[in-house]
Amino acid sequence: MRAGSVWLFQTTPTEAATDFGGLLPVAVPVWVNQLLSALFVLAVAFVISRLLVRLLGRRIAQRFRRPSLTRTALRSIRAFVFIFALLTVMNIYGLQLGDIALSVTVFSAVIGVILAPIVGSIISGMFLLADQPYEIGDMIELADRNQRGFVEDITLRHTKIFTLDNTFLVIPNGEIRQRDVINYSAEDPRIRLSQQFLVTYESDIDEARRLIERGARRCDDVIEGGPDIRIGAARYPASPTVYLDNFADHGVLLTLRYWAMEPYKLLRVRSRIQTAVWDELDDADVEIAYPHSHLYFDETSGEMQVSLADDAPAGGAGQAPEELDEVRDG
């Protein structure tokens, strides 16, 4: 090599080229050997992780019987394989864990600023998987946002929710554990709902209750009847039932309690019930109340004082002049 010339790949004494024992016609630089070895290790790790997931996936699913735990276990297997591959690649390049260790001060700063939220989310994810407040496929509602959706995925870091508005919510597990989450799919998908109807005091209340119950039973998504449904130590009638709730200002408040078969289309169920009740009450002696007021005057209501100014123009206020004179004289 001439003095002053520069080679693109210049090897140092520690990076001597090799021909792999004479198998190659030319010598290969060490950095190429290291790169090929690293790519080979990563490819082998990818194949092994796929193979382990395929071999152990069914057994793990039968073992846990929960999609969230199954996915977490399979992700952990992949993570361990690739961590081992990464350590192998570091060894190929001559790096050891002690060579890349940071000082105590810098390492503490990294832990406090960057890793603390991640570690907190992972710990919260472990609690979520252990407590089982919801599972993949469950319909839940975030009470503070009044938003419903289906749980799409649960990881150690976040929960992915597919909302009913065709959008995704990705919430860190540390945040979702601090929220009030309503699970509509836990154990029994049946859900008890209520709707209120206000009828006038002049209506036939017994007839109104009977017609509202009949209208609710006509809906396909509502449980018509059967044995009482048990919730804890209490039992509730399965068929729609109307209760006289309150004597309100503008009418009698009736509350319909009923059971919906599935919690996924609550607005549609409410709409169908109100449509059926409206049809039932159309020809009945029952009137839906609305806010209105009646003004009634009698001898105890007092007197209304009427005065007319003397300087009012003739014919003012829509009266003839002679009528104004009679008012002044009388």
What's the main sheet like?
5 strands, antiparallel
Helix content: 25-40%
**Strands, count:** 10
The average pLDDT score comes to 76
Shape: elongated
Give the ordered list of helices and strands: HHHEEEEHEEHEEEEHH
The parts where pLDDT drops under 50 for at least 5 residues are 1-16
Distance from N terminus to C terminus (CA atoms, Å) equals 134 Å
Please report the number of helical segments: 7
User: How much of the polypeptide forms β-strand, as a percent range?
Assistant: 15-25%
Across the major sheet, the strand order is 4-3-2-1-5
Nearest-angstrom radius of gyration?
Answer: 39 Å
- Main structural class: alpha+beta
Q: Would you kindly provide a written description of the structure presented here, covering whatever features stand out?
A:
This protein is α+β, with helices and mostly antiparallel strands. The chain contains seven helices and ten strands. The chain has helices at residues 30-64, 67-92, 104-131, 173-176, 205-217, 266-280, 321-329, and strands spanning 139-142, 147-154, 158-163, 168-172, 181-183, 191-199, 229-231, 234-236, 241-247, 252-260. The strands form three sheets. Strands 4-3-2-1-5 form a five-stranded antiparallel sheet. A three-stranded antiparallel sheet has the order 6-10-9. α1 (30-64) runs antiparallel to α2 (67-92) and α5 (205-217) crosses α6 (266-280). The N and C termini lie far apart (134 Å). The model is unreliable at 1-16 (pLDDT under 50).
